[in-house]
Design brief:
Layout lengths: L7 H11 L7 H7 L4 E5 L2 E4 L4 E4 L2 H4 L8 H13 L12 H13 L4 E7 L2 H18 L7 E5 L8 H6 L3 H4 L9 E4 L4 H4 L5 H19 L4 E6 L15 H12 L2 E5 L13 H5 L5 E4 L11 E6 H7 L14 H16 L2 H19 L6 E7 L2 E6 L15 H12 L2 E2 L1 E3 L2 E4 L7 H24 L8
Parallel strand pairs: 3-13, 5-6, 5-7, 7-8, 8-9
Antiparallel strand pairs: 1-2, 2-3, 4-10, 9-10, 11-12, 12-15, 14-15
Helix pairs in contact: 4-14, 5-14, 10-11, 15-17, 16-17
The protein binds pyridoxal-5'-phosphate.
The site of pyridoxal-5'-phosphate has 16 residues, from helix 6.
Length: 463
């Protein structure tokens, strides 16, 4: 039998033989073998060699309350014994789904009072595509079917959500995007702002939405979708001018606003939802990840009164076997109880967030760091060979980021690279002492990466 007790090399060989990895450089995997994670507690992972790794990504941006909370395991076991599975198709329901939907409606701002459950964020965004198109069709405007999104956005990996996303390497495989999805620029001032001020650039990016609506036709556009703070695109924080203008344009043209809160939701930005941090009022929110802190797969769409009422006029021919899965719902409810009772959102807003911000912005003194951005507990740095000119590296994008990520890995720190940007999204429970330890590892990794780049003659700016 295959257990934690097998030697690492054997586990890696068995992994390579039969396990296909998501989003992984397969040539690299074949050479090095995957690191085998065997257990986790708090903010630390343990691997099959017994190394303790500080997880500054909270898994995939999801383990908001940290690893190893027995309460969630106990709730899962209890629920599995009582009612392991049932659904809410065809006139049935169950208590975990009722309780979770009510709790989410209580936490969500404004009249976001209705929840359609999914297995994760991708499925929830697929729901959103069908939901907003059905909304307009039910209102007698079926031609309003175009959804506007942003280049380099990530909204999931299914055909629908991958189409909403704006990632070119994903669109290059499998025939994406589906029809009637349109992408405008992302507000990434560091990389794309040119000579404009951040404020002017933010405004210009938002106004691309208005230009797209006018070009496509007001009567054709159903919705705009975006993350309050773009996560997988590189923790891109929009200039302050961006979101008020987006809200104005959505209001003016009656475009539904979908906030993808899969990363930003449940405390990550210092409020329950990222929409509150950037000051927008969406009609629909996509949720997943932090909803259960990753302890069980669950996601959903939180829907405002008006959209729910219009969808409810008729049967919505949509649903997943695991929509509102009782075990996942019970686990999510317990996770929300912990976030609320331990005031984890307050901890981000008043303790960990401000402390991390001070330390994070302090990284600007490092020769490799050109920009340091942070909102709550999600943060990024742009690596550059020349800060003054915001230069990009001459090497292929991602080469330098990879060097840095490798050094982090070597220093038992999980930090991700997006191109030549380094990002973190740690568990929200980090104490100031944990932050000091994380920053210590980051600085060590940056120093080593800097030396690697000098040794390999990679500190050259693109011309
Ligand atoms: N939306 C955003 C903003 C995400 O970051 C992700 C996942 O990283 C998704 C959607 C997709 O969620 P899932 O992987 O649960 O399908």
């Amino acid at each position: 039998t295959i257990t934690n007790h097998l030697p690492t090399a054997e586990l890696q060989a068995l992994d390579a033989a039969h396990h296909m990895h998501p989003f992984t450089a397969n040539d690299e995997l074949a050479k090095k073998g995957a690191r085998v994670i065997t257990r986790a507690s708090g903010i630390y992972l343990t691997d099959s060699e017994g190394e303790e790794i500080l997880d500054a990504m909270a898994g995939l941006w999801c383990v908001n309350i940290g690893y190893g909370r027995d309460e969630l395991a106990d709730v899962a076991a209890r629920q599995m014994r009582e009612l392991p599975y049932y659904n809410s198709f065809f006139m049935t329901t169950h208590v975990p789904a009722i309780a979770l939907a009510n709790k989410i409606a209580e936490l969500a701002p404004g009249d976001l009072n209705h929840v359609f459950f999914a297995g994760g964020g991708s499925e929830a965004n697929d729901t959103n595509i069908r939901m907003v198109r059905t909304y307009w069709a039910n209102k007698g405007k079926p031609e309003k079917s175009v959804i506007i999104s942003r280049k380099n956005a990530y909204h999931g990996s299914t055909v629908g959500s991958g189409s909403l996303g704006g990632m070119a390497p994903m669109h290059a495989q499998g025939g994406l995007p589906i029809p009637d999805i349109h992408h405008i620029s992302q507000p990434n001032w560091w990389a794309e702002g040119g000579d404009a001020t951040p404020e002017a650039f933010g405004l210009a990016c938002a106004q691309e939405l208005e230009e797209a609506i006018l070009e496509l036709g007001e009567d054709r556009v159903a919705a705009f979708i975006a993350e309050p703070v773009q996560g997988a695109g590189g923790v891109i924080v929009a200039p302050d001018t961006y979101w008020p203008e987006i809200q104005r344009i959505c209001d003016k043209y009656e475009i539904l606003l979908i906030a993808d809160e899969v990363i930003c939701g449940f405390g990550r930005t210092g409020n329950w939802f990222g929409s509150q941090t950037v000051g927008i009022q969406p009609h629909i929110m996509t949720i997943a990840k932090g909803l259960s802190s990753g302890y069980a797969p669950i996601g959903g769409s939180i829907v405002c009164d008006e959209v729910a009422a219009v969808i409810g006029q008729d049967e919505f021919n949509h649903g997943y076997t695991y929509s509102g899965h009782p075990v996942a719902a019970a686990v999510a409810l317990e996770n929300l109880r912990i976030i609320e009772e331990e005031d984890i959102v307050g901890h981000v807003q008043q303790v960990a967030g401000p402390y991390l911000k001070e330390k994070w912005e302090g990284l600007m003194d490092h020769p490799l760091v050109g920009e340091a951005k942070i909102v709550g507990m999600m943060a990024s740095i742009a690596l550059t060979p020349d800060k003054a000119s915001r230069a990009k590296f001459a090497s292929a994008p991602g080469t330098v980021g990879y060097v840095c990520r490798d050094r982090c890995f070597g220093n038992n720190l999980i930090m991700r690279h997006v191109g030549d940007r380094m990002i973190i999204s740690p568990p929200l429970i980090l104490s100031p002492a944990d932050i000091d330890e994380m920053i210590r590892r980051i600085r060590k990794s940056l120093d080593e990466a800097h030396q690697d780049l000098i040794d390999k003659d990679l500190m050259k700016a693109a011309s």
